[in-house]
UniProtKB/TrEMBL annotation:
InterPro entries: L-PG_synthase/AglD (IPR022791). It comes from Harenicola maris. Its main location: membrane. This is Flippase-like domain-containing protein. It is found in: Cell membrane.
Length: 339
């Protein structure tokens, strides 16, 4: 007597998306819990009354201003994503690209933000373009963010006279700018990929695909495109730096615009360089420590850090979670044959 499984291939296929959603939800929930537990612990150590008093200083109008400035960042970077998509030759509209860009924020807390590659799946469904053909879009977008933040950090540190006030600011700026230069130079990136393959000697197909994506970066190399991308990125990230400056002023800790921008940018970059999902943990620790070096007490730096992270990172994740199911549904109903 033979035993047969009650599950069918269709059942197994249906369970895979569900298991991925549960896994992603658990990851986001776990990181949010870590974020809250860490800040609650610090707040408890410094005194709840002082921390809550600082939070109560904010009005709902001020919170909305912080969220609006974050939205400026996302919209400008979304426009940059659309510009890169047009340079690549993708037949997508502005609405499509903004939907894909926002929806990808739902996966921002994956290690190294690799979950944002979900945008490639939506593009493949809606345009028929393979992931190999759209991969340069991810590379140039990430490189543009690194370049914009490196420029902002370097300029802010100099203008604020904080060359020695932020330990490692120069190193982080140089690393970010160096990574951006490598990622946007086809020959240089291809050479680095070849050296990495020779050193490791594994995954030949993967390295071949990365080299192919590197060659496609030539499409984004015109000075006009790079200048426009830099401008959009700088304006976007400066908007969030300005939000941090306003928040500190409202809490009675005005350390100056450029100092606030430098601390925000450095902390965001440092958190990302740790490889932690969403930079959670590293960014908050760096921000609190740097505010302390500026003489800001913990009862101010802790709530300021919590609020700016909620209105930037977690606001983006919230937008992503709202947009994700819409992008997923539309991509499934508008699938095209591979081209």
């Amino acid at each position: 007597m033979t035993m047969t499984s009650s599950s069918t291939p269709n059942d197994t296929a249906a369970r895979k998306p569900l298991s991925r959603r549960l896994r992603d939800t658990a990851l986001i929930g776990g990181l949010l819990a870590m974020f809250l537990v860490g800040l609650i612990g610090l707040a408890a150590a410094t005194g709840w009354e002082e921390t809550m008093a600082q939070i109560r200083k904010l009005t709902w109008a001020e919170v909305l201003i912080l969220l609006a400035l974050s939205m400026v960042n996302y919209l400008f970077r979304g426009l940059r994503w659309h510009m890169f998509a047009r340079c690549l030759g993708l037949p997508t509209t502005l609405g499509q690209d903004i939907r894909h860009f926002f929806g990808g924020f739902a996966m921002s807390v994956t290690p190294g933000r690799v979950g944002e590659l979900i945008r490639m799946r939506w593009l493949k469904r809606e345009t028929g373009w393979s992931v190999e053909r759209t991969a340069p879009l991810v590379l140039v977008d990430r490189a543009s963010d690194l370049a914009a933040m490196a420029v902002i950090l370097g300029a802010a540190a100099l203008l604020a006279g904080m060359g020695t006030g932020i330990p490692g600011a120069g190193i982080v700026a140089v690393l970010a700018l160096g990574a951006a230069i490598i990622a946007t130079r086809p020959a240089l990136l291809s050479g680095c990929v070849t050296l990495a393959y020779r050193a490791l000697g594994v995954w030949p197909r993967l390295f071949a695909k990365v080299r192919g994506a590197a060659r496609s970066l030539r499409l984004f190399g015109s000075p006009r495109i790079l200048s426009a991308a830099a401008l959009l990125g700088v304006i976007g990230w400066l908007a969030e730096g300005y939000a941090f400056h306003l928040l500190l002023m409202w809490m009675g800790a005005d350390i100056g615009f450029w100092s606030a921008v430098a601390i925000f940018t450095f902390s965001t970059l440092a958190g990302g360089l740790t490889g932690a999902p969403g930079g959670v943990g590293g960014a908050e620790a760096a921000m609190i420590a740097l505010l302390g070096l500026q003489g800001i007490p913990l009862e101010v730096s802790i709530p300021a850090t919590a609020i700016i992270r909620v209105t930037t990172l977690w606001f983006a994740i919230g937008l992503g979670l709202l947009t994700f199911p819409i992008a997923e549904r539309i991509s499934k109903t508008h699938q095209r044959a591979p081209v």
